[in-house]
Amino acid sequence: MKFIDFFAGIGGFRRGMELAGHECVGFCEIDKYAVMSYTAMHLITEEQREYLATLDLRTRQKEILKDEYRNGEWYASDISRVDARDLPHADCWCFGFPCQDISVAGKQVGFEGNRSSLFFRVMYLLGQLPSEERPTYLFIENVKNLLSVNGGWDFARLLVELDRGGYDAEWQTLDSKNFNVPQHRERVFIVGRFRGRGRSEVLPVPEPNGENCVHQIGMDGTSKRKNHNQYRLYGVSGLSPTLNKMDGGGREPHIPIPVVCLDPKYKCLEGGMREYEEETPTLTSRDYKDPLQVIVATDNRSKENNGGVYAKVADGTTAYAIWYAKQQRYVAIRKLTPKECFRLQGWSDDYFHKAELMNSNSQLYKQAGNGVTVNVIRAVAEKMKG
């Protein structure tokens, strides 16, 4: 299946879709630094990469923005200037439209905000295409708060727009921690299917480390509850009032993540990793300022002693540690590296190094936080086959 990657960031949608066997035919992204990483990660040849590596960073960044480094793939910077007639044919449009106006960390103005209203630009482009040229699927991602911002009415508007465009909708809240990355990151995933085409169902996607949650809304306005964080809508004439955010279940994964080993009784794995039973909080674009990770300290005093201690870390430096009741031991805090943030989003290290060639640490933190989790995208994309 061929797809277009809108609001592409560094290509989390692309990577997940490609791992599921789909083919990207173009991308759209306005942030020039994200375009630099995207191009380096997905488009340039090894010969081009070797040449770019010989240049200083500033020259390298200017060079990779030239058309020749995209090697013929369709690209647009600003979606508001895209003409539908110029788009390559695709079976699926993927997009996680900007969430700053919707996120609980933002102003929560919803679709009244300039950035989140870009969803309607995508729908406008669809409307400019004859029905036979519209993609079979729309694959959409956003923050969980999309389901409840402005009392749920913005999400209702989204469903209405999909219906007007000829798409039935199904949606599910998925947590990255249930897809083999140690990050608690709940996002809503929406699949629009053009009526009369494609499989009857893509969602729900089973969460390997969590629960499979379903809620179906029928045309007659009745709703049958199977579980609690996934919904399906066929048309909107009988829209159910249950448009509120719902929390899914799941257990904490036991996954190796990069930490500094402070307690000798824990076996360190290659590269300073050890088995750790707790996921990091969700990554955001703000994490370039102060991303944190809990690490275990050597001192294991009783919980009655709430004072701090200094713990010797593996590289010979010391860190101030405080008592952590949940772990029943002292812990210290250190900053995540950009590579670790990429790992938390499901990227392999070779892709990180390709992005690192083009950008500063502050940009890499931002790009990881703004992206989607590759593992989750792949899981949904696998259901789009056939």
Lay out the secondary structure.
Layout: E1 2-6, H1 12-19, E2 23-28, H2 32-42, H3 46-53, H4 57-64, E3 74-76, E4 92-95, H5 118-127, E5 137-143, H6 153-164, E6 167-175, E7 186-194, E8 215-217, E9 223-225, E10 230-233, E11 255-258, E12 273-276, E13 292-296, E14 309-312, E15 318-324, E16 329-335, H7 338-344, H8 349-356, H9 361-370, H10 374-382
Parallel strand pairs: 1-2, 1-4, 2-3, 4-5, 8-10
Antiparallel strand pairs: 5-7, 6-7, 6-10, 8-9, 11-12, 13-16, 14-15, 15-16
Helix pairs in contact: 1-10, 2-8, 7-9
Return the average pLDDT rounded to an integer.
Answer: 75
Cross-sheet strand order for the largest sheet: 3-2-1-4-5-7-6-10-8-9
| SSE run | EHEHHHEEHEHEEEEEEEEEEEHHHH
Question: Main β-sheet: number of strands, strand sense, barrel status?
Answer: 10 strands, mixed
Number of helices: 10
Number of domains: 2
The helix content, as a percent range, equals 10-25%
Give a short overview.
With 386 residues, the chain is an alpha/beta fold. The chain has a ten-stranded mixed β-sheet. Strands 13-16-15-14 form a four-stranded antiparallel β-sheet, with no helix packed on it. A two-stranded antiparallel sheet has the order 11-12. 24% of the residues lie in helices and 22% in strands.
